Amino acid sequence: MSTEFSNPKERLFIPFLGPFYDGIAQPLGWLVLRLAVGVALMHEGWPKILAPFAQTGFVEGLGFFPGWLWSPLLAILQFVGGFLIAIGLFTRPVALASAVMLAITWWFHWTHPFGDVLLTPEGIAFLKENSHYLTQTGLRRLADGGAGLLATADAKSLTLSPLWAAGALFFAAFGGGLLSVDRQLRRQF
């Protein structure tokens, strides 16, 4: 069973484009999407790699005990898993695990929005004193007491997690595509 979509010439409005779609457009589209999903996971996972136990409370809040075990595993899944998706190695199982992780993340942020957690005077003071945690845009957003900053963080969590989960599910279902390490090894899950 092929992991690529086929374009039978009799179904195309412009039949001579079939080889272009099959030989160039689809493999490049697959590669670009795989790189986008993988690099996004790596980007989100890098801070967790630097502080592998920082998510202990988060994962325990989700019911994953012990947090000291699950927090580093989350970091590894995001960063190393993102790298594996990007290069297309063990694509299906890593993408499936990533999709599950992203779905859980989305669910958590949906049911536990940030709310006013940082809008206390102490929270705003902390952010102002530790501005290295924020971009210049984030610092400007503190002028409204942090409401804009929290709204942006909530929006990111609620929109990007399902988007990347859908991308990961695509690769869990269809594999890494023609331009992947899996394909070069001629072995896939």
Features:
189 residues, 8 helices, single chain, mainly alpha
Write the layout of secondary structure elements.
Elements: H1 18-50, H2 56-61, H3 67-87, H4 91-111, H5 121-129, H6 136-141, H7 147-174, H8 181-185
Radius of gyration based on Cα positions? 20 Å
Count of alpha and pi helical runs: 8
* Poorly predicted tracts of residues: none
Distance between the termini: 13 Å
Determine the mean pLDDT: 86
Proportion in helices: 55-70%
* Global geometry: elongated
- Number of extended strands: 0
Integer tally of domains: 1
Largest sheet: none
Q: Roughly what fraction of the amino acids lie in strands?
A: under 5%
> Order of SSEs, N→C?
HHHHHHHH
Structural class computed from helices and strand pairing: mainly alpha
Condensed summary:
The protein is mainly alpha-helical.
Your description of this structure?
The chain has 189 residues and is mainly alpha-helical. It has one domain. α1 crosses α7. The protein is elongated and about 65 Å long. The mean pLDDT is 86.
